[in-house]
Amino acid sequence: MLRALGTVKHRVKNNPVSHAVGRAYRRVTLVEPSSFDTVYHCCTQKTASQWFRAIFSDRLFYRYTGLEVVPHIALGLREAHFDGQFPMRTIATHLYVDYPTYNSIPKPPRYRTFFVLRDPRDALVSWYFSMKYSHVDRFETVRTLRHELADMDAEAGISHLIRRLEGFGFFDAQRSWMESPAREDPSVRVMLYEDLASDNAQFLTRLLEYLDVRMPESDVRRLHERHSFRRMSRGREQGQEDINSHYRKGVAGDWRNYFTPRLENELRETTGDLLSVLGYE
């Protein structure tokens, strides 16, 4: 396993990022505080995690929640763990964790959690292009994978990443959320990347409803427009590809353009009935 995806300790008490965010929001007039003490945004990589972070970091979102963003920077999945409870009145965003790790975090009396699920085949394609071309290389994992993928075509590169992601715990993390008691917990919801990709305005509305954010429709539209694919990709429409952009294509189902029978078989041999468990078969 690559070192950057090894043991992760996230010290959430006295988090300096939270303090910095707090200073940024001091001049924002709070309309109505969130009814939840903490919100947990859980996911694996390649599920639009930076879009969620941008939404939650927007001053307009803060105005209707009073929740300060605490971003989880570490990439760890299988061996990630936390030292304590997140600060009150925060939203912990892009927690790359499996369900048991999430479940180990001490929770306040009032909280909401959602996990973002994506077809692992689309995630693999996104990993390939991101690691080979677009992701910033400040992490050792990215630098290592970029070197490994340099001379590989898409089929060879995705095959390589199937093995890598299995080692990282990526597929096990997805499975853990779908096979966990979270499926019966009203405080936890699984949301689909595919719904976000097909209609991100409607997805945003449903997300705000789930988090009990009472934002007027006009401000919901403003929030969506600020973080639309066109705005984030500097003018491209969804489906228009730029392999050098973090926002490469913004669609679901792109795996069909890259998955050969060999890759289908390799994924099934590696992950077993994962596609069925996740609802993608």
Structural overview:
This protein has 281 residues and is an alpha/beta fold. Helix content is 44%, strand content 12%. It is built from 14 helices and 7 strands. It has helices spanning 16-24, 49-57, 59-63, 99-103, 120-134, 140-149, 154-168, 170-178, 193-198, 200-210, 217-226, 229-232, 261-271, 274-278; strands at residues 8-10, 38-43, 68-71, 80-82, 90-96, 111-117, 188-192. The strands form 2 sheets. A 5-stranded parallel beta sheet has the order 3-5-2-6-7, sandwiched between helices. Strands 1-4 form a two-stranded parallel ribbon. The radius of gyration is 19 Å and the shape is globular. The protein starts with 7 loop residues before the first strand and ends with a helix.
CATH top level label of the largest domain: Alpha Beta
- Distance, first to last CA: 29 Å
Instruction: Give the biggest sheet.
Output: 5 strands, parallel
Helix tally equals 14
Shape: globular
Q: What is the CATH homology-level superfamily of the largest domain?
A: P-loop containing nucleotide triphosphate hydrolases
Assembly annotation: single chain
Please indicate the percent range of residues in DSSP E strands (runs of 2 or more).
5-15%
For the largest sheet, list the strands in their spatial order.
3-5-2-6-7
Order of helices and strands: EHEHHEEEHEHHHHEHHHHHH
CATH topology of the largest domain, by name, is Rossmann fold
Structural class of the helices, strands and pairings? alpha/beta
What would you report as the Rg, rounded to the nearest angstrom?
19 Å
What's the rounded overall pLDDT mean? 85
- The name of the CATH architecture of the largest domain is 3-Layer(aba) Sandwich
**Low-confidence segments, ≥5 residues, pLDDT <50?**
1-21
